[in-house]
Amino acid sequence: MHVSNNYSILVPQNSSFLDSPEADLPLCFEQTVLVWIPLGFLWLLAPWQLLYVYRSRTKKSSITKLYLAKQVLVGFLLILAAIDLALALTEDTGQATVPAIRYTNPSLYLGTWILVLLIQHSRRWCIQKDSWFLSLFWILSILCGTFQFQTLIRTLLRGSNSNLAYSCVFFICYAFQILVLILSAFSEKNDSSKHPSTTASFLSSITFSWYDSVVLKGFKKPLTLEDVWDIDEETKTKTLVSRFEKYMAGELQQARQAFQKRQQENTQRNPGARLHGLDKNQSQSQDVLVLEETKKNKKKSETTKDFPKSWLVKALFKTFYVILLKSFLLKLVYDVLMFLNPQLLKLLISFANDRDIYLWTGYLYSILFFAVALIQSVCLQYYFKLCFMLGMKVRTTIMASVYKKALTLSNQARKQYTIGETVNLMSVDAQKLMDVTSFIHLLWSNVLQISLSIYFLWAELGPSVLAGVGVMVLLIPINGVIATKNRAIQVKNMKYKDNRLKIMNEVLSGIKILKYFAWEPSFQNQVHDLRKKELRNLLTFGQLQSVMIFLLYLTPVLVSVITFSVYVLVDSNNILDAEKAFTSITLFNILRFPMSMLPMIVSAMLQASVSVERLEKYLGGDDLDTSAIRHDCSFDKAVQFSEASFTWDHDLEVTIQDVNLDIMPGQLVAVVGTVGSGKSSLMSAMLGEMENVHGHITVKGTVAYVPQQSWIQNGTIKDNILFGSELDEKKYQQVLEACALLPDLEVLPGGDLAEIGEKGINLSGGQKHRISLARATYQNSDIYILDDPLSAVDAHVGKHIFNKVLGPNGLLKGKTRLLVTHSIHFLPQVDEIVVLGNGTILEKGSYSTLLAKKGLFAKNLKTFIKQTGPKDEATVNADSEEDDYGLMPSVEEIPEDVASLSMKRENSFHRTFSRSSRSSSRRLKSLKDLKTRNVNILKEEEEPVKGQKLIKKEFIQTGKVKFSIYLKYLQAIGWCSIFFIIFGFVLYSVSFIGSNLWLSAWTRDSKTFNSTNYPASQRDLRVGVYGALGLAQGIFVLIANLWSVYGSVHAANILHKQLLNNILRVPMSFFDTTPIGRIVNRFAGDISTVDDTLPTSLRSWVLCFLGITSTLVMICLATPVFVVVIIPLGIIYVSVQIFYVATSRQLRRLDSVTRSPIYTHFSETVSGLPVIRAFEHQERFLKHNEMATDTNQKCVFSWITSNRVPPLTPKGLQAGDLHQRPASPASALALGHSKLVVPFL
């Protein structure tokens, strides 16, 4: 192949190839630079890629057909490179000199194809078989080879066959490269990874095609949790938290050191600040005590303001810096490419106005337009995916860290937070951080966009742009003042909302009383009064927001009017032409987004900083110090208190003081004393729940705990008793019988599989205590701490439980038992009695020993027997459940139809009279019956017993939102208001089209007049009308927005009234089967959506629809043939939207449904912390929380992915504009606005 001949022919074109009527590059450039670019890219990145594979290698995967096909094709490329080199060597026999490039290129390709074979083989040790940089190499190679491909085709078409062999080799190589790229688009599955995103190829990842199967399934039928893929290991809660904790530990330690330094400096400045007041043992008047306490509280509130700060953001940054860096680079590329659009538009308008430029130049600009838009789309979608993933991971990390901290937080730190406040840390504060991290890059991106816009505007219009910038700067403080007022209104509104929800909580908690006394209207009026105040604030907020939107829409128009006016007024030579006008308009429109977003981002960051401080205070709080509780398995005593003093708060008096107590293994020790003597505190101290002052407690073996206030989980009775342990049927039935639960299980629908409501709402006090005791009894622990378990049961039930469980012959015989009790008649049967008073041990010994001593115990016992009488059973606590043993649950406890309840009441009445005749054989029979019944229930799980499932599952709506729902909201706004709102926005769109058409006509003046004879009257008319149309846009938007605010507030008022009215009139059975939290959520979350989200969404939808319509109208006016293109594009786009929206909508619902259990479980955990810690089940609860969070995460991840399918369809609009050469400013207008329609789509 005599390349030199072609080369010599084409060399003269080097200097003037852009002036050629055909799009062509010099052959030397094609065969050198365009060949070396992809090869250089591969060889530079190959070492790094091979090192990465070596470090992250996993188990070697089996050989697949796809792997073989790719290797075979690259093998063929290697053979073709060898043939090409052989052709070059055989041609080196004539007189003509063969260029060196003919040897070097095949040699380079030989080495390259061997390297590709090696890389493809090494990927067998990776989970993701396809390499992103290999895919980029194939794309680069094909794109660069396109020029040489068309050159060779044209050469052959001219009839030159001298290079036929070389051409054939090149064509075959080119075809094989395309085939390899196609094969690289397919993903190879890996057995070790369940999630397809981890094995997806590069092309599949950037187009999100790996997700198509879920979208298809979601389009065919509503998705369920089983249809959503699990997240990969890197995204799982456990992995994220362990990585975060590694950095958190270091940053928190530094923050604590800085905090201690601050405290030392404050102490040195105020040496007299540490004044402790009077001695607590001195006699003080009540006034002095109150004053001292007030000062102490004030001082305490001042000191608690300071805590370890400025560590959370640093720890989060170090944890997720890789995602931040990737998203930063993608956003940077997107922003730079965004400013290429005005420059390309400028070139296109120049091409449209110059007939001498060759047609292929226009096509080149069109292709560049499309390519830039395509790269922008891919970058933006991947950037959004990374940012939303970052937000999701941050939220998950915060939620899991807050939960983990709750399990270890000290009582002193925990006292500062209610359960509701702690849940808010997980929900509200974590969500705020998620929102901010999703858009964190806009902080620097907005500044960059504003700077670049001003720079390019300066290039177009010179110093005139400073006038427009000055206007923007003047409007910033106005927006700032409005934003400050809005924030103050929001704070006030939140208080009204809190008060309204507080009353709603009270109403729902006491709904039975309200219905008994017919107080619904009174409370309804109270709620309405608060709602009116809330809506008045909401109206003011909406009015201020409308002014902000008015300024936002007016700013670009005002800036462009002032800039253009100054430009044409300062110099008579400055005439506005299409090129300058529409390039500037495009830049002004780019400027609109950062100008509007920057204040919002700053405001969001200020709000997030409050959340960061709250989280830093909570996560940086002191952990529970259990160093005073020593666990020794080889100790000879079960429990030993050694000079143990404990307090609930170091600022308060010591609660447990200098206790010395030895408890031997297997002993039953009763702890007695008056109310407030420290019995429960002694048990809490042993569990490590109190702050140690001095001394220690030694414990031998595991502990089980029955608290004074029973803690019951939302679940079945069986789950509550087993508490994570394996089921031993025989032992389980013994525990049920011993704890007197069998008669209750006979009555409850579903027996032990009956669901217990929130906080055991459908159980009586005694039932809850017995289940709590059964839970402890079932655990095979060494020490049992029983804090007054008999307080809420009847005397005969207490006797049964003592004999069967606690006593010398009970199930717990041989175990160490510490029993806090007021039931004096059980004391003769215990091994030792400990009498407490004011936190110290007053007496201890056996029952007979203490009576013989005739001390405090004997004296109190004698007094008590005199007061109660010899015939009465000595139980101190008379507030016990009525007929608890076998008691029939009440109406609220098991909601069913009235007839069945009446029958059960009668049965309960008869059973009460016949109870005394029950014998032990009857109980054995009931035990057998229960076993049989449980087996039957298990067999018939598909048809559960009526009433077994108490709490109704929240209904998940499927499919698209019904049209009647939209009509309901529109009807609430008012059809008259709807008409005027839409009419106002239509007038805005008309004025928007008018201003752009007027600008188009203005630019024609540059052809009609030159700089010397441009009339001043014509200039003033153009500026005046353009300004008037711009002002009209702002006014119409303001009117439409104000009307929208009034309409939406009216709708919010009507919908809330209807909701409240309905809730107060539903029957009691509804409240029995529906958790209060779910009803409150309707008044909190859903009403908040009606107040804030729906009005904004309605306005956005109308503006987007009219924006697209007006833009398309302008394009079609300029180029009517575009109608032919837009109809099929519109059909395709709408079809794609319908296809993907079904999945996205259902995933959003699943996200909402899977989030509730996380907060419910957290609330439940916080209320039962002492029990969880006592049983040492922290890891089990942590695991449960991680599973619940991961379930929610997989829904969020899928939702993020479903929304990130690159919208490539709208990009066709921009490429479709150049079907013919534009020749007017109107065409330039169409080109400019084809860029604007894409964001709306």
UniProtKB/TrEMBL annotation:
Keywords: ATP-binding, Membrane, Nucleotide-binding, Repeat, Translocase, Transmembrane, Transmembrane helix, Transport. GO terms for molecular function: ABC-type glutathione S-conjugate transporter activity; ATP binding; ATP hydrolysis activity. It is a multi-pass membrane protein. The chain crosses the membrane at residues 33-54, 66-88, 100-119, 131-152, 164-186, 319-340, 360-384, 439-458, 464-484, 547-570, 590-610, 972-994, 1023-1046, 1098-1115, 1121-1142. InterPro entries: AAA+_ATPase (IPR003593), ABC1_TM_dom (IPR011527), ABC1_TM_sf (IPR036640), ABC_transporter-like_ATP-bd (IPR003439), ABC_transporter_C-like (IPR050173), P-loop_NTPase (IPR027417), TMD0_ABC (IPR056227). Residues 259-285 are annotated as: Disordered. Residues 639-863 form the ABC transporter domain. GO terms for cellular component: apical plasma membrane; endomembrane system. Pfam families: ABC_membrane, ABC_tran, TMD0_ABC. It is found in: Endomembrane system. It catalyses: vincristine(in) + ATP + H2O = vincristine(out) + ADP + phosphate + H(+); leukotriene C4(in) + ATP + H2O = leukotriene C4(out) + ADP + phosphate + H(+); sphing-4-enine 1-phosphate(in) + ATP + H2O = sphing-4-enine 1-phosphate(out) + ADP + phosphate + H(+); daunorubicin(in) + ATP + H2O = daunorubicin(out) + ADP + phosphate + H(+). Residues 327-607, 979-1205 form the ABC transmembrane type-1 domain. Its EC number is 7.6.2.3. Belongs to the ABC transporter superfamily. ABCC family. Conjugate transporter (TC 3.A.1.208) subfamily. This is Multidrug resistance-associated protein 1.
